[in-house]
């Protein structure tokens, strides 16, 4: 069962940024021939999760699973990027990132550092001291952790759907083009911005729906109102209640 993370633990969202997201951005932006090229861009991208993993192992005396996940993700996407990819392999490459990102949610839950608490129940938005104080029975605590597990798998599912949609979109635009040609490059550019609209926007909507679902479940579980859950300070209603 996952436990509430302490200050000594690495920040899950920072882990994800340093080991998967940022290396992927570096790999994508530096792989062009006029920059580092695909081989050296892969080396630079791999240094981030590798270095962070070594740091965590030395300082925390443990294996950081985000670093392992990041290394695998960058090796797969970067390794495929070194090849003269046909449309189908480029689709695999483009689908790899959301797949590995999706795996991060349930794996972080079972690793006792649920990433969903940072993405949907961010401490900057949610009143965590009040929330944790309201989980005053073992039954409520168990229900809360089960809720985190369901939300983690739901986010993983949305990312897997994104991976499938991204692969299909790549196949649609790149099928019939020859790697390395101008038409191939133009098709990749078109696929990128179209993908943001037809995949990115619905994904943001699904994430918001999941957040509202979690808030409703937390309200029912704790008896707190949404204003109290989403405000780290005091609301007008709680101020009036205290005066009474």
Key structural traits:
membrane; transmembrane helix; 244 residues; transmembrane; disordered N terminus; 10 helices; MFS transporter
Structure summary:
With 244 residues, the protein is mostly helical. It has one domain.
Unreliable stretches (pLDDT < 50, length at least 5) are: 1-9, 234-244
Total strand segments: 0
**What's the helix-strand series?**
HHHHHHHHHH
Whole-Å distance between the termini?
40 Å
Tally the helices: what do you get?
A: 10
Instruction: Name the shape in a single word.
Output: globular
- Taken together, the total number of domains comes to 1
- Percentage of residues assigned to helices: over 70%
Classify the oligomer.
single chain
Sheet having the most strands: none
Structural class: mainly alpha
Which radius of gyration do the C-alpha atoms yield? 21 Å
Beta-strand percent range: under 5%
Describe the structure.
- With 244 residues, the chain is mainly α.
- It has one domain (12-234).
- It is 76% helix and 0% strand.
- The protein contains ten helices and no strands.
- The chain has helices at 12-30, 37-60, 65-81, 87-110, 116-119, 128-134, 138-174, 182-222, 226-229, 236-243.
- The protein is globular, with a radius of gyration of 21 Å.
- The two termini are 40 Å apart.
- The model is unreliable at 1-9 and 234-244 (pLDDT under 50).
